[in-house]
Specification:
The complex is a heterodimer of chains A (131) and B (170).
Chain A: H1 6-14, E1 17-18, H2 26-60, H3 69-79, H4 86-95, H5 99-113, H6 121-127
Chain B: H1 3-30, H2 33-48, H3 59-72, H4 75-79, E1 91-92, H5 98-110, H6 113-123, H7 129-136, H8 140-166
Helix pairs in contact in B: 1-2, 1-3, 1-6, 2-3, 3-7, 5-8, 6-8, 7-8
The chains are: A mainly alpha (131), B mainly alpha (170).
């Protein structure tokens, strides 16, 4: 290599071309971005389906207990009516949120259970051949 | 349209136009082709992820500065000294003169890192001293000084190595 002035030395150096880099992986990047997008879409759809099923299940499920605490005491009494004694009346009044609620519970209970398996007096008398 | 598709052609063009000089610059800092290539990919993939090139006044300088930052952010590279890799060529030599290519590579590698970066940025990156000053965050007079010393040392080193190859007994 001859001794060159700066500009000629620079020109000599520029004859050496830097090696090109590896191919930029754009295709791979695009594919991975596409896959990520598809994955996000599927995840969103799955979340929506699960949410819809959950809502449907919760709506279809029969509620065993009333949510309103005011009705809970009367509900308990209606479930197991039994005879109305001083003790059960006191318990009902203690649990019920109001006097009206307790009275309703007694009324519902007597209405739903007192005639089960029994005949009305008018029917019994009408069927009596002696009368 | 997706922003990725919008900018893709532009980014590919930048990569093919400046990729070789960027890789050489990255090699000059990292010393290792794998790390240099990784840093370059990192810069361009970041661009694909949504960097707005239209807001950048000097895209070429931005790319060189980004490549430098990507390498310097790698703590391990900052800490370790890099050995010269004889196998990995940096240049495509004129007239397939591979001995001259190795001579140039060795001589460049022997330069202080600061001077090596400036020489590469000016000769092969075709950047002005002002642009280099912006990339390296130094004064442009310092750039000019480093270039002058770097070029002189490079010439000396190349001549010395050529001489020693021609007369191995000396």
């Amino acid at each position: 290599m001859p001794i060159l002035p700066d500009d000629q030395f620079e020109a000599y150096l520029r004859q050496f071309r830097p090696q090109p880099p590896e191919q930029l992986l754009l295709e791979m990047r695009e594919r991975s971005l596409g896959r990520l997008h598809a994955l996000k879409t599927w995840a969103a759809v799955a979340a929506l389906v699960i949410a819809a099923l959950l809502i449907q299940y919760l709506r279809a499920r029969p509620s065993s207990q009333p949510d309103d605490p005011a009705q809970r005491a009367t509900f308990a009494y209606v479930e197991n009516p039994g005879p109305l004694t001083i003790q059960s009346a006191r318990a009902l009044l203690m649990e019920a949120p109001s006097f009206d609620a307790a009275l309703n519970a007694v009324a519902i209970s007597s209405h739903s259970s007192s005639f089960s398996g029994k005949q009305s007096a008018v029917n019994a008398l009408s069927e009596d051949p002696k009368l | 349209m997706h922003p990725f598709r919008d900018s893709r052609a532009e980014i590919e063009l930048l990569y093919s136009r400046h990729g070789p000089a960027l890789l050489l610059f990255a090699l000059a800092i990292a010393g290792d082709r794998g790390r240099a290539q990784d840093a370059l990919h990192q810069v361009f993939l970041r661009l694909l992820e949504g960097a707005d090139l239209h807001g950048i006044a000097d895209v070429k300088s931005y790319l060189f500065a980004s490549a430098r930052n990507a390498i310097l952010n790698d703590y391990r590279i900052q800490q370790r000294s890099v050995a010269f890799d004889e196998e990995s060529a940096w240049f495509e030599p004129p007239q397939r003169d591979y001995a001259a290519e190795m001579n140039l590579r060795r001589s460049l590698f022997a330069l202080p890192k600061d001077q090596r970066q400036v020489v590469i940025l000016h000769v092969w990156g075709e950047l002005t001293f002002l642009q280099i000053a912006g990339i390296l965050e130094i004064n442009s007079n310092t750039v000019a000084s480093r270039y002058r010393y770097g070029l002189a040392k490079l010439r000396e080193a190349m001549l010395a190595k050529e001489d020693s190859c021609a007369n191995p007994s000396r």
